[in-house]
Design a protein that fits this description.
The protein has 139 residues and is mainly alpha-helical. Helices cover 51% and strands 10% of the residues. The chain has a 3-stranded antiparallel sheet with strand order 1-3-2. The radius of gyration is 19 Å and the shape is globular. The relative contact order is 0.12.
């Protein structure tokens, strides 16, 4: 079965975090980084090859220079992005996914495929919830 297969509705066999005998399986640190909106966008952009800073900034709508700087630094620190400085004047810098970072791309693609496949279902569920719960504004 493909990782992007969405034909099944049975939940995956996952062990919950937070159990007394399982206080932190390490997923929190990963989700802190990968769960960030900007990190996902950077990973998606770098999946097609190395990019310079300004190329990344132009490609990711709405990201500020500061937020992009913080995001690529965090991804670099986590070993997901490699920053290369070339000895030119002015110095040129590019960013690329490491092997570890490239390993995430199939998971990000699976999530994107899932979200596209279920976008209408989620929109309908939200509409029904908002209609049934008019006093609960949770947007």
């Amino acid at each position: 079965m493909s990782l992007t297969h969405t034909g099944t509705t049975a939940p995956a066999d996952l062990d919950p975090c937070g159990r007394e005998d399982h206080p932190d399986c390490g997923i929190r640190d990963v989700l802190d980084r990968i769960g960030e909106k900007w990190s996902v966008f950077v990973i998606v952009e770098l999946a097609s090859g190395p990019r310079r800073f300004r190329e990344l900034q132009r490609a990711i709508d709405g990201i500020s220079q500061r937020m992009l700087t913080l995001t690529v630094r965090r991804l670099e620190r986590d070993g997901l992005v490699l920053r290369t400085v070339y000895p030119t004047v002015p110095a040129q810098v590019d960013y690329r996914l490491t092997e570890t970072g490239a390993g995430l791309t199939h998971l990000v693609k699976a999530l994107a495929d899932w979200s596209l496949a279920h976008r209408a279902d989620i929109a309908e569920a939200r509409r029904a919830y908002d209609q049934d719960h008019p006093d609960h504004d949770i947007r």
